[in-house]
Amino acid sequence: MKTFIFSIITIIAITSCGEVDDNTPMVPVDDDFDPMEMGTTLIKKGTLMGIGHTVTGDVKVYNSAGQLVVVFDPFSSQNGPDLKVYLSKDEKAMEYLNLGALKSTTGKQSYDVSGMPNLDQYKFVMVWCQEFSVLFGIAELQMP
Amino acid sequence: MLLTTAQFFIQSYVTAQELPSTFKIIDLDGAIGDTQGTLTLSFNLDRNFGKRQRLVAGLGARFTSYLGKNQYYITAPAELTSGSTGLGVIFKENIDANIDTFLIKKAQVNSLNLVVTFGYNVSLKLLLRFNIDVIGFSFGKSANGNYINGSEGAMESSDPTPFNLLLVSDNDKGSLNSEFFARYLLNHKWGVKGGIQFHFTEYTTDTEVQQQPAPNDRFRNKSLMFMAGVSFKL
To answer: For residue range A106-117, what is the model confidence (pLDDT) as tens digits?
Structure first.
């Protein structure tokens, strides 16, 4: 009986702690967003800091003809599963906007923000592992 | 091989005449699925009936402890998932636009429920069973989750829905377990069982995080898992 119970617990433990696939593309990207384009204004910027993971780079938020765009350039991140880019009101993503899946672990990349959220409230940009609810990296947005 | 098979069926036929009218059995099961699992302890009082005592109906009590990691819970109430709450809900397709997701990092729900059993005794040793929780209560630790509604999201705390009740389809409330399995009795006391387990768990968020198309705080996870266990005949 003890052996049986131990076996069941072992199987559950092994299953639940299994390796997960790294599913963010690792091929460098180079989005063609041009900050020098007419009508494009830099409104916020910040520096990414890894939280328990290796994430580095600069974050800039532009207003491009009425469209808010978050740009990572330069950017590099440790890989992980289900990585998303969040624009959050706080450091724990208690309330956030999901800007989409991280395009690549490296290279210049841009993310459109739907609507026109108040960036004095949404003042953090995050690289967030959604499936496992883990913060990879964060940048606090400040005036340029 | 043929001889063995023939012996099995002959024995099944003969021994069916000797089945007792009632069984009292304690089961201890484990079930596993994708980063989730349950441990289940149940007491079952089965009554055999029919001409050769092969049909079975029973009642019992079951304690189920569920543990899940990174599990997606979806909008639970039938009025949202199906747009109605009547008996016809079982035939209705889910309305995807009404269903939001609550992603729980560590789910742990314990439930104690009254369980009903239906079955068929193939022989004295081989017993087929289907059982399902009917009513009971649940408890467990509060769990933080990520409410996902399109591009918007929020973190929210939640607790296992305390009251469990089997109704029809998504009208169900709380955490309910069901199993379909075969039990093989090794001797007069001990047996082994194996089959599948279909298990619901439900969490209620601290606030009604879902607001469209109607306020909602109940989110359900449905898990189909393989189960195995041991049986002890009282």
So the answer is: 999 999 999 899
CB-CB neighbors (< 8 A) of A112 in chain B: none
Q: Which of B41, B70, B102 to mutate to test the interface with A (most CBs of A within 10 A)?
A: B70
**Is residue B6's pLDDT more than 60?**
no
Range of the domain at B141: 21-233
The pTM for the full model equals 0.81
| 3-state DSSP assignment of residue B208 | coil
The verdict on residue B36 lying in a domain is yes
Confidence category of residue A73, pLDDT binned at 50, 70, 90: very high
- Total tally of structural domains belonging to chain B: 1
Whether residue B9 has pLDDT greater than 70:
no
- Nearest CB to A94 within list B28, B151, B154: B154
Domain residue extents for chain A: 23-140
Which residues, in sequence order, are CB contacts of B9 under 8 Å at separation 6+?
none
Q: Would B109 be classed as within a structural domain?
A: yes
CB contact (8 A) between residue A15 and residue B35:
yes
Examine residue B195 and state whether it is found in any structural domain, yes or no.
Answer: yes
ipTM metric: 0.70
Q: Which of A11, A129, A133, A134 has the most B C-beta neighbours within 10 Å, making it the best mutation to test the interface with B?
A: A133
Check A98 against B151: CB less than 8 A apart.
yes
Q: What is the CATH number of the domain that holds B103?
A: 2.40.160.20
Contact across the interface for B34 and A12, Cβ inside 8 Å: no
Q: Does residue A128 contact residue A97 with C-beta atoms inside 8 Å?
A: no
pLDDT tens for A96-105 read 999 999 999 9
Amino acid at A70: V
Strand partners, B101: B74, B148
Q: With an 8 Å Cβ cutoff, are A1 and B230 in contact?
A: yes
Give the ranges where B95-169 is alpha helix by DSSP (H): none
Mean pLDDT across chain A, nearest whole number?
A: 87
- How, if at all, do strands A107-113 and A29-30 pair? parallel
Distance CA A48, CA B200 (A): 40
Would you call B153 and A95 a contact, using CB atoms and an 8 Å cutoff?
Answer: yes
Report if residue B7 sits inside a domain: no
